[in-house]
């Protein structure tokens, strides 16, 4: 049987990068200008395809490129 590769979702990547930066959702919201509820929704997978502008703001606040937040 072939091994299946797990693909991280945008929300999972956002959570991993945020935690790696030792930021809370509230701190990321303040740094990015994105509402905390939007960050929660993205991380939970309720918004699997966030607006590119939102991704750009989050990426900038985390010090990464927007591409780093996209799925594998």
Helix content: 40-55%
CATH-level-4 superfamily name:
lambda repressor-like DNA-binding domains
CATH class identity: Mainly Alpha
Count of helix runs: 4
Low-confidence runs of at least 5 consecutive residues: none
Classify the beta-strand content into a percent band.
under 5%
What letter string, H or E per element, gives the SSE order?
A: HHHH
What is the name of the CATH topology? 434 Repressor (Amino-terminal Domain)
Q: Give the biggest beta sheet.
A: none
CATH hierarchy: architecture = Orthogonal Bundle
Distance N to C terminus = 22 Å
Number of domains: 1
Anisotropy-based shape: globular
Number of strands: 0
Mean pLDDT: 89
Radius of gyration: 12 Å
- Based on secondary structure, the structural category is mainly alpha
What does this structure look like?
This protein has 72 residues and is an all-alpha fold. The protein has one domain: Orthogonal Bundle (434 Repressor (Amino-terminal Domain)), CATH 1.10.260. Helices cover 54% and strands 0% of the residues. The protein is built from four helices and no strands. The radius of gyration is 12 Å and the shape is globular. It starts with 9 loop residues before the first helix and ends in a 10-residue tail after the last helix. The model has no long low-confidence stretch (mean pLDDT 89).
